[in-house]
Specification:
alpha/beta, Enolase-like, domain 1, 8-stranded mixed β-barrel, 13 helices, 16 strands, 38% helix, binds 2-phosphoglycolic acid, binds zinc ion
Length: 428
């Protein structure tokens, strides 16, 4: 110490629940500037195997999903090492935690333990310096991303027979994030009416991304409904579409086949099916995880066959710099899905995003299906000038949190801010 930088005085963590009633960690970091930063850890359900390790108790509580061990690691290992440290040295704090963990995937202390403290430290530092978090993290953050809003859910996020996981609208033609939000919500309302008329009121039940989970069977049925809702809302020229196929859970490694749109397919047939789908709907501008996470050669075929379309790596890269180098080097993707808990610390998340941007891979920020009311990801997105943000459907305060934080940031930035709009894929 001996500097005038604010120092950490205490760290505490608590087991809370997320939007699906599963436990997660809320951490608080306190500083000698009299400030406190708070952060909650998200959790996915379609998780890739290259993600930071999510440490769970594995005992009788919460079906084994308790986080008491991870919390004990925060109190017993991280807290004693971090108290007294400069809270504004985010990179140094994150490195110290990585060293204390000492494993490649954070399996000793838990990626969830590290992330909770890493994010809460960033919030505490911003508060201590009296800065909004996006400004603390970057002097240049000014881009409000296109909300890629998932209005129809399938895959492991829904109790229906749709294999692909997310069908999203992207209001690129709106002049501001606020107007983009209005369009998303209006299309969402129109879609509700359409689903009720065509499939009955059960079709408007929700999936895990805050979109509807109607009883559809194929991607074309879902796309046709989305397109019809956009047409009826009167915003055809302003909206494009993004898909998350989330192919890893659709892949059966024993048989080497995918289950997609109602039937089993070889990898070649899966590639053909994805290419046909994207070509049939020219307004699809983004397709995430079209294939399972280890088929880099197949991914390259998709990238090469769909010029002008973002082929977004999620499970493929798991916001992991090593995986990202591999995938970019192989030409297997041209956009990064960036999830803070895949990385496991704020520094690693931002390093991965910046690596992608330096390699002309635009960044799509993404929450997880398991979220809380924490809105930190919106600030990280603005700090990174990410072009798009996979925000979920406008349903529930877990999804509303990010919409509302962006609205707040847009208002705060005023003329300094700019909505990514049609340039969203050039932001790299
Ligand atoms: P997850 O889904 O949070 O359940 O992993 C999000 C995604 O696949 O992008
Ligand atoms: Zn995904």
């Amino acid at each position: 110490m001996g500097t005038n930088r604010p120092a950490i005085t205490d760290i505490s963590a608590l087991e809370i629940i997320d939007n699906r009633g599963r436990p997660t960690i809320r951490a608080r970091v306190y500083t000698d500037a009299g400030c406190c930063g708070r952060a909650d850890v998200p959790c996915g359900s379609s998780t890739g195997s290259y993600e930071a390790f999510d440490l769970r108790d594995g005992d009788a509580r919460y079906g084994g999903r308790g986080v008491r061990r991870a919390i004990a690691n925060i109190h017993d290992v991280l807290r004693p090492a971090l108290v007294g440290q400069d809270v504004t040295d985010q990179r140094g704090l994150d490195q110290l935690m990585l060293d204390l963990d000492g494993t490649p995937n954070k399996s000793r202390l838990g990626g969830n333990a590290l992330l909770a403290v890493s994010m809460a430290a960033a919030q505490a530092a911003a508060a201590s310096l009296r800065l909004p978090l996006y400004r603390y993290l970057s002097a240049d953050g000014h881009v409000l991303p296109v909300p890629q809003s998932c209005l129809i859910n399938g895959g492991v996020h829904a109790g229906n027979d749709l294999d692909a996981q997310e069908f999203c609208v992207m209001p690129v033609g709106s002049p501001t994030f606020a107007e983009a939000t209005r369009l998303v919500c209006e299309v969402f309302e129109t879609l509700k009416g359409l689903l009720q008329r065509k499939h009955g009121k059960l079709a408007t039940n929700f999936g895990e991304d805050g979109g509807y989970a109607p009883p559809l069977r194929t991607s074309r049925e879902a796309m046709d409904l989305l397109c019809e809702a956009v047409t009826q809302t009167g915003c055809v020229g302003d909206v494009v579409y993004g898909l998350d196929i989330a192919a890893t859970p659709l892949y059966d490694s024993a048989s080497g086949t995918y289950r997609f749109d109602g039937r089993s397919r070889t990898p070649e047939e899966m590639i053909a099916a994805v290419l046909d789908l994207v070509r049939e709907y020219p307004s699809i501008v983004s397709v995430e995880d079209p294939l399972q996470q280890d088929d880099l050669a197949g991914w390259k075929v998709v990238v090469d066959s769909l010029p002008g379309v973002l082929v977004v790596g999620d499970d493929l890269t798991a916001t992991n710099l090593g995986r990202l180098r591999l995938a970019v080097g192989a030409g297997a993707m041209n956009a990064l899905l960036c999830k803070v808990n895949q990385a496991g610390t704020v520094t690693e998340c931002m390093d991965a995003a910046r690596f992608a941007q330096r390699h002309t891979c635009p960044v799509v920020m993404s929450p997880r299906s398991g979220e809380t009311e924490d809105d930190i990801l919106s600030d990280i997105s603005v700090a990174l000038n990410a072009g798009a943000f996979k925000i979920g459907g406008p349903h529930g305060s877990d999804r509303g949190a990010n919409f509302n934080r962006f609205l707040e940031i847009e208002a705060e930035l005023g003329p300094v801010g700019s909505y990514a709009g049609r340039d969203f894929a050039q932001l790299a």
